[in-house]
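Hi support team,

I'm filing this because I wasn't sure whether my run with farnesyl diphosphate finished correctly. The job status page said complete, but I'd like someone to confirm that the output block is well-formed before I use it downstream. Pasting the exact inputs I used:
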Amino acid sequence: MGEGAPDGTRVDLPAEKLPRHIAFIMDGNGRWARTRGLPRLLGHENGASSLRRVTRRCRSLGIPEITFFALSTENFQRRPKTEVGFLMKLLKSYLVSEREELLENDIRLKAVGDVEALPADVRAELAETERLTRDRGSMVLRLALNYGARQEILEAVARIAREARAGRLTEEDVRALGERGFRRYLADPEMTDPDLLIRTAGEYRLSNFLLWQCSYTEIWVTQELWPDFDVPQLDEALRAYCSRERKYGAVSPADLAARCPQGHA
Ligand code: FPP
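And here is everything the job wrote out:
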């Protein structure tokens, strides 16, 4: 067992095996409210508190990158206006209220998605929080806002087409980009592939989230609803992740040894 977190907390999570980037699909806010006979909006409000708790835990464990699916393109277009309006208010107040804590904890806030479609006051607070935290380097907290992975990939292709039309890229250049080079055209070229994707509320779907980046991501689905997702649930997911063997399409050394004993390769 590792000693655990840089904050000195002894945890049964080997620091060297922890994921470097965790992505979260925060599902079940509505169900959480419904089972309590509360308005859906309260589910989102409590969901924002979970996001805060999870961020603190990840920071204390020294995880350098976390990405939350806060609002999908589909949510933005298809939810009732009152709900989207409430989410916008919640987001705006979060962006203001978290600034101090982000700065104190050396956390950089970034957004991906079509933020131009968000209300002007939300965009302004987002830009300000991104600006204030842009030199912070211990952790990136990324919010996917009005985000869709297919749209992100299409946008990348459109950027490449623009470069080609301007004579700055040939077909051979595009092929030579490879997977790493293609990343430059995605929404955040600095984003690494998530090692772990956590989805709450028992749904087994990617829901158009980080499709390019999650090709080899380990997935953890919990029945817990997002507003109930707290440190013990996160630690459980992390323990499971630490015990998994990541093979990226290869054969594990143990299996290889079993199949090809020395001298019989
Ligand atoms: C899915 O639950 C969740 C969302 C559409 C919004 C997620 C937003 C938050 C957790 C809080 C806001 C974030 C910030 C950064 C302030 P759902 O409503 O679809 O749940 P259901 O499937 O049970 O109805």
